Amino acid sequence: MTGKSWIYASVLLALTGVSAPLQVVAGSLTTVPVRSTNDAVGFVADGVVEAVRQTGVAAQISGAIVDLPVKAGDAVKAGQVLVRMDARAANQEVKASRAQVDAARASLVVAQKDYERQKQLFTKNYISQAQLDRAESQFQTASAQANAQIAQAGALQTQSGFYVLAAPYAGVISDVPVMLGDMAMPGRLLMTVYDPVAMRVTATVPQERVAEIAAEQKVIVEIPGMPASQRLIPANKVTVLPMVDAATHTVQIRLELPQKIAGLSPGMFARVSLKSKSVSSDANRLYVPVKSVFRRAELSAVYVVNAQGKPILRQVKLGPVTGSEQEILSGVSAGEQVAADPLAAARIAASR
């Protein structure tokens, strides 16, 4: 047994909780061949989980934060208050503007009555046309001033509502980068909210592989961070974005996921297996049983049994899972024998 293989075997035994090597005869070790097939040629792309609706909540005006009733991880309803800012000065301006509106309306009433009286006097030839025109002009001026004051009061009333920020839709708070007492400025991000109902995966694909993507295909998205029973998620739709990154020469694709998947969060790593439109006869995919693959942290490996029956630990790069089989992207060759039980193989390797 080589030094590197002995180290891998020791690590495997330590991680699996085996305190001392057990004597297992090589003949009792069950092996399976690495299966090769070209039934579905494709490629694997790495991606990330995103929320279809994710909103950064920012202020439109300046003000000190006086109430912050939510925190990261909280579920909120549509219209629920997220942030309150100090609006005392704005409220005083609204009151002053309302008083000015009342004064303008009173002046308008006086000007209207005076205009009506002047019209009656003009019909009796008691005043000249110039006096009547002057009264009409004063009435129109008072009316315009009253309308201006009403509009200004409405603008101030609307602006006073900017001091309270509410949730745009029902969702989950993912980040709150501010604290109580901080100064909110126009455009400054105060918190981020996303809708957990609709999620998608965005992956990056080399531009030369975009033409090979079959649009109407059933794609299985693997989320390694999810529990084993929820790790494989079928995508509803594949969309290729019509934009190529000039720096990396890659194209983004979006895969819509089913709604309401518990435990799925934006930012999680995803692995996408895509099939090509055409199948090449000389391109094979390699598969081994899922149970023959050992996974611990960043280590993914299988035990390859050589012609002498000696199990050798070999690190592999994994592809997607199909049924009870695990695709191997690199690390083994077609026809090689791998141990069906990696724990038994580890005991044999450690005992030599």
UniProtKB/TrEMBL annotation:
N-terminal signal peptide: 1-26
Domain of life: Bacteria
Domain CusB-like beta-barrel: residue ranges: 201-277
SUPFAM superfamilies listed in its UniProt record: HlyD-like secretion proteins
Keywords: Signal
Residue span, Multidrug resistance protein MdtA-like barrel-sandwich hybrid domain: 54-188
Alphabetized InterPro entries for the sequence: Beta-barrel_RND_2, MdtA-like_BSH, MdtA-like_HH, RND_pump_MFP
Stretches assigned to the Multidrug resistance protein MdtA-like alpha-helical hairpin domain: 97-150
Family, as annotated: Belongs to the membrane fusion protein (MFP) (TC 8.A.1) family.
NCBIfam families with a match to the protein in the record: RND_mfp (TIGR01730)
Protein name (Swiss-Prot/TrEMBL): Efflux RND transporter periplasmic adaptor subunit
